[in-house]
Amino acid sequence: MTDTTQKTASYTVPGMDVADGAHVAEVLQDRLNALNDLHLTLKHVHWNVVGPNFISVHEMLDPQVEAVRGFADDVAERIATLGSSALGTPGTIVSQRKWDDYSIGRAPAIEHLGALDLVYSGVISDYRAAIEEVGKVDPVTEDLLIGHSGQLELFHWFVRAHLENAGGQLSTAGAGSEKEAARDAS
After folding, report:
1. Of the candidates 71, 86, 73, 69, which has an alpha carbon nearest to the alpha carbon of residue 22?
2. Which of 142, 143, 170 is nearest to 156 (CA)?
3. Burial class (CB within 10 angstroms; exposed 0-12, middle 13-18, buried 19+) of 139
4. What is each CA distance from 183 to 52, 162, 173, in whole angstroms?
5. Are 181 and 115 in contact (CB under 8 A)?
6. What is the per-residue pLDDT across 87-98, written as a single tens digit (0 to 9) for each?
């Protein structure tokens, strides 16, 4: 049986002490969990979207899935570079995540987009907190996360463009759950 627990690093990158490297890796593990969850959620939406805007949303999501998978790979490799072990198992995601499973099944495109607005908001907010945290000790990881954040914000805009009216208001403004956001979007 393989041990999948995260090991304490005995080394890290030159110019950083081991404790700081381990802390940055811990912050990155949270981002890895979020990215793995996000790419699975996006694929779930891709498979379960229905209605008149099916094809446009279905096709919009595939490049997002591929980019987010790439971000996960970047983060996992950075964790390894820092001397720690990247954990990418489903059990790790479930046991360490601070959010609930995506709650919308087969549904019209606009409902999924409403729910994805909240998903992206959470991922991006957590990314910004991680950027602030790692920026104190590791500009290389900070730069990596900034690059990802810019792309995630672009994908979020793609989603929000479907939810915005001509006056600039989002139909999902103030929604507290994915189901509420899905309802508000429709």
Report:
1. 86
2. 170
3. exposed
4. 17, 14, 12
5. yes
6. 999 999 999 988
Q: How far, in whole angstroms, is CA 176 from its chain's centroid?
A: 18
Please list the residues that pair with 107 across neighbouring strands.
49
pLDDT at 173: 96
Token pair in block for residue 88 = 């990418």
CA distance 45 to 107: 9
pTM for the structure as a whole: 0.93
DSSP letter for each residue of 141-177: HHHHHHHHHHHHHHHHHHHHTTTB-TTS-BTTTT--S
Spatial separation of the C-alpha atoms in residues 144 and 22, rounded to whole Å: 17
Sequential DSSP letters for 1-33: ----SPPPPS--STTS-HHHHHHHHHHHHHHHH
Surface-to-core class of residue 164, CB atoms within 10 Å of its CB (0-12 exposed, 13-18 middle, 19+ buried) = middle
Rg of the Cα trace of the chain? 18
